[in-house]
Design a protein that fits this description.
332 residues, alpha/beta, 3 domains, two-stranded parallel ribbon, globular
Length: 332
């Protein structure tokens, strides 16, 4: 069951599912008959009342707490009293989202990673009121979907996005010190990542994290200006706008060093200071591990292995290195 805000959004959602199933057929993962059966099993509507008999609902709307609360107000009105209600939030405090939900024991966070049909990780985030049976339902759902579940405590970004935030900040810190953007990305590719931090931001869009920082600023939080903010304010949001940290020729995805970026950031960067690739990777992995240790100390993660699972299956950490906690286990 797919609920959207209007008929056009429903049509787009069904079309995206069609494209996913068609791709699976082309790759030999599904037969045409299996794909057609799966698509036929999806109903799209704008009416919340269609959810009256369901066992589980996962909200996945825009990361704005007012929007999410409005959705859960409707879910609380139409769903069964024992239906499990979950949020897919990646950053927001699920306790605040759940405020006012009838029977809050049935509420929890289920953070899927994009694209959800591909990525194996599922962060499961209970709130203090979450009933043990509801938490167990989250793990059972992960098994049913072939996901790797990791329980996470509540903090901004949970486990994975909190570490990602520090990783990106540390990468920007190297650039401020005079290390070239392309050198940072090349070092992390050499370490085993499919992309470096700046290439990955260009692919996903710089505006996503920018909007989260802007939301925090508007809420009165002291959030320092990042180099990424400078680029977004200049209209550089990544590949989708033809430029982010790099320039992209029309129709091309190959990153090219950007004179425009050099000009926009020149006042905030030190003189060029080359750094060995191994030293870059060691520094950034060390920053990730340091945030992981803080997460463990705060009880957000249960064990170092949980953090490594999150990084490998949610963020493309090279699995043969074991994850940042395993890789730095001898550094102290």
């Amino acid at each position: 069951m797919l609920i959207e805000r209007d008929a056009e959004a429903v049509a787009r959602g069904i079309a995206k599912l069609q494209a996913i199933f068609d791709g699976a057929v082309k790759r030999g993962k599904l037969t045409p008959e299996q794909a057609a059966a799966r698509l036929a099993g999806v109903t799209g509507t704008t009416e919340y009342a269609a959810l009256a008999g369901v066992d589980l609902v996962i909200e996945a709307v825009f990361e704005e707490i007012g929007v999410k609360r409005a959705v859960f107000a409707e879910l609380g009105r139409v769903c069964r009293a024992d239906a499990v209600l979950a949020t897919n939030t990646s950053y927001l405090d699920p306790r605040l989202i759940a405020a006012g939900v009838p029977n809050p024991r049935r509420f929890l966070g289920l953070h899927f990673f994009s694209p959800a049909n591909v990525m194996k990780l599922l962060e499961i985030v209970p709130v203090p009121d979450t009933a043990p049976a509801v938490l167990a339902t989250g793990f059972a759902l992960a098994r049913l979907l072939g996901k790797i579940p990791v329980e996470a405590g509540i903090c901004e970004g949970f486990i994975g996005n909190r570490i990602l935030k520090r990783y990106r900040a540390a990468a920007e810190g190297l650039v401020r010190r005079g290390v070239a953007i392309a050198a940072v990305d090349a070092a992390m590719r050499a370490h085993g990542f499919a992309m470096g931090p700046f290439e990955a931001q260009d692919l996903g869009g710089l505006d996503i994290a920018f909007l989260q920082r802007e939301g925090a600023r508007q809420a009165g939080q002291a959030v320092p200006e990042t180099l990424g903010d400078v680029l977004v304010r200049a209209g550089r949001k990544g590949q989708k706008t033809g430029g982010g940290w790099y320039d992209y020729a029309p129709g091309e995805r190959r990153p090219q060093p950007s004179p425009a970026v050099a000009g926009l950031l020149s006042s905030q960067l030190a003189a060029a200071a080359p750094m060995a690739p191994e030293a870059i990777a060691q520094h950034l992995v060390g920053e990730m591990a340091a945030e992981g240790r803080a997460i463990l100390h705060e009880g957000i993660a249960r064990a170092p292995a949980d953090i490594d699972l999150v990084e490998i299956h949610g963020y493309g950490y090279p699995r043969w290195r074991g994850g940042p906690m395993f890789e730095t286990r001898d550094r102290g």
